[in-house]
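Hey, resending since the last one bounced:
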Amino acid sequence: MRRVSVIGNSGSGKTTLAAELAAAMDVPHLELDAIFHQHGWQPLPAREFQAAVAAFTAGEAWVVDGNYSAVRDIVWRRADTVVWLDPPRRRVMRQLVWRTVRRMAHRTKLWNGNRESWANLLRADPQKSIIAWAWTHDRIYRERYLGAQADPAHAHLEFIRLRTPAEIVLLARRAATATRPGGLG
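The structure tokens again:
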């Protein structure tokens, strides 16, 4: 486990786990949201996004988190492991709503000066509400990643599907142990 892609629904804990894995492995971490969402929530043009991700993943070891189809092939072609956070929808929604409300209440600056908007909290349009996005994409991600696991094109990847907090803790411990002298890696 030296080049890791962390995937999962919004609010599943991708960035938290990816940061923990990167720290345990002593490798760089890239949060795809941080480069995709430019000032004013404007998307980075696809070619620039792909170039930035290609440059980052050219390294020997790294952790990347995010689900962007525009760069999935770049990341997965170079990865050796895909960690799929797939908790039950109710847990994802609870975590996501709490995180979103906390960010709004504290006016937390996210990527490139962006902040989550109260106006988007209860919108039904998944393009305008992270909560609606997560609700509508739960099944989509599950089908996509189950299919990806079975795809012979991804035979070079170890897929690790995590559904519970205990499984997440065990993986983080495994990564920390693997990087110590005499560890697994």
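The chain has a mean pLDDT of 93.

Sorry for the duplicate.
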